Amino acid sequence: MTGLAQRRDLQRRVSPSQPRIVRQFFTAALLLASACGQSPSQRRPADGVYAGDPIHAGDLLQVSVFATPELSGKVQVNRRGAITLPEAGRIPIAGLTIGEAQRRVAGALRDYLLAPQVQILVLRAAIPLVSVLGAVNRPGTYPAGAHTTLLQILARAGGTTPHCSGQVLVTHIHHGKAEGSDWYDLRALQQPGSSGPQLRGNDLVEVFRGGEVYVGGAVRKPGRYALNANPLNVYQAITLAGGLRSGRAQSTAVLVRRNGAGQMLTSLIALETPPSGPATNTRLRAGDLLLVPESTGRKVLLHGAETALATGSAIVTGLIVFH
Q1: Beta strand pairing status for 319-322 and 89-92?
Q2: Domains 129-209 and 212-322 share a fold
Q3: 212-322 — its CATH code?
Q4: pLDDT per position as a tens digit, 79-123
Q5: 227-238: per-residue pLDDT in tens?
Q6: For the chain, is the Cβ count within 10 Å smaller at the N or the C terminus?
Q7: Does domain 129-209 match CATH 3.40.1160.10?
């Protein structure tokens, strides 16, 4: 008689019609024998991950059902997070701890066995991965343990680039589908006492790039400059561009900006010494064009195509003339 047939025969013999003391005796005997057969630790081998960690798709498990070799053996958690056992069929266990998975499998076997005792050991743990995209120095996929935080993953990706806007979107992928997302501000996460959110396997982390402004005219290093997580005012933008060229800059800068309707607006901003007023109060936006006219000429000429190339977008067209 096979082990499974023996267990079923025992289940028939220890039926509800038997005296209660008889049923309690057989159940206690099964529990004791199973407890003797279990190992005191549920530690995963070699990788240092413990039973409190969740089971992942791809994990290779050893499932042992006491005195029933027909239901015991090696199984792998499929990509949908389930295992398949004879008699019990498909049992979803991904995301459960080892103890929780043992109880779920035992519950699925109660229609076939009197008091199923299940032990699960992770023979080979699949490594959950997190994908990192956007304004980081090394985009790619990185391993994420059970308690890996967003800041730790960003550090593994080489940190953020100077073009980072400070905004991060974490999308949770489950069974190949997006199941919710969360926005995070890196400035808030980097405050003392903040550990940041913990990530899960298959999460997608997108670090958004900030916009750019163009600073030109009588500055030492004209060009594009990134708007990162910190606001940038007119004076700071000129400082990033190397400051004013001595003796050649006017005391007024010209700010070119498109409004919400797509119209191009210009405004004059006084460059006072020391910096104050509009030069420190006016915050730049993505796509702004800041020009410091030459003091020796009456006009500043900037060809539209050159501006579009510098800013990466057609903020202006044609020939701009500032008197």
Answers
A1: unpaired
A2: yes
A3: 3.10.560.10
A4: 888 999 988 899 999 889 999 999 999 999 998 899 999 999 999
A5: 776 678 898 999
A6: C
A7: no
Q: 169: Cβ–Cβ under 8 A, 6 or more apart, which residues?
A: 181, 182, 183, 184, 205, 206, 208
Interatomic CA distance for residues 161 and 138, integer angstroms:
10
Beta bridge pairs of residue 270: 252
Whether the upstream peptide bond of residue 274 has omega within 30° of 0, thus cis, is yes
> At the topology level of CATH, where does 3-124 sit?
wza like fold (3.30.1950)
Cα 137 to Cα 34, 54, 129, 209, 292: the distances in Å are 53, 30, 18, 12, 33
- Contact partners, residue 125, CB within 8 Å, separation at least 6: 44, 47, 49, 56, 59
State the CB neighbour count (10 A cutoff) for residue 236.
Answer: 17
Which residue reads 């500032």 in tokens?
322
Q: Which residues partner with 204 through β-bridges?
A: 131, 171
pLDDT above 90 for 157 = yes
Predicted TM-score (pTM) above 0.85: no
What is the SS3 assignment for 240?
helix
Residue 223: helix, strand or coil by DSSP? strand
298 residue type, one letter: R
Reported as a single tens digit per residue, the pLDDT across 181-207 is: 888 888 888 888 777 899 988 899 999
Largest pairwise CA distance in the chain: 110
Helical ranges in the chain per DSSP H: 3-13, 20-37, 98-108, 150-156, 186-189, 234-240, 278-281, 304-311
Q: Is the pLDDT of residue 26 over 80?
A: no
Nearest to 101 by CA among 40, 39, 55: 55
Is 24's pLDDT higher than 70? no
Q: Which position has the higher pLDDT, 216 or 117?
A: 117
- Residue holding tokens 């059902």? 65
Map out the domains of the chain as residue ranges. 3-124, 129-209, 212-322
Q: Is the pLDDT of residue 270 over 60?
A: yes
